[in-house]
Amino acid sequence: xxxxxxxxxxxxxxxxxxxxxxxxxxxxxxxxxxxxxxxxxxxxxxxxxxxxxxxxxxxxxxxxxxxxxxxxxxxxxxxxxxxxxxxxxxxxxxxxxxxxxxxxxxxxxxxxxxxxxxxxxxxxxxxxxxxxxxxxxxxxxxxxxxxxxxxxxxxxxxxxxxxxxxxxxxxxxxxxxxxxxxxxxxxxxxxxxxxxxxxxxxxxxxxxxxxxxxxxxxxxxxx
Length: 223
Description:
29% of the residues lie in helices and 27% in strands. By secondary structure, the protein is an alpha/beta fold.
């Protein structure tokens, strides 16, 4: 069992009967969704909402009951991965392009659990390019403003075509190298007209579960 899978299985153990569960997106969330499906087939009764069309398709294929957001008022627990986690449990997310929906789920969850392997732990955020979701309208002007902040930015593309999010927007990856003040930068980015949201998750996590290559798992919580 790999480190991501170990962390995912530990997180899924927190899900209880009758909960509304938020499903994350990406390679680590993939393992959590599979484990949740295993528990559903064993008799666990939950309702789930997904942070991406990709995760929703996977959940439905595996037999996890997905409900429309209009049928819920809040989420009991969301489980998702991260691209970086700092010592204060702030995150960079969005490597999979679903940062906006992931943030909506996290902000509306009683408990937001992040699962990672040890490679995602950092002292300071920023080595991983920070994804920023922007509207296509006048994108070049928004990108100019982001370049003033970050210095180097790239519009994300896949197979030579601009990557488009589930919301119909673009992702700009910003190369900060080191983010001195994540809270301040989060506010600066979201004040730029044309920016929908960014991949900084500041003060949103209750618990981080880390899987290690040696087979051990540790848990870090907000003090």
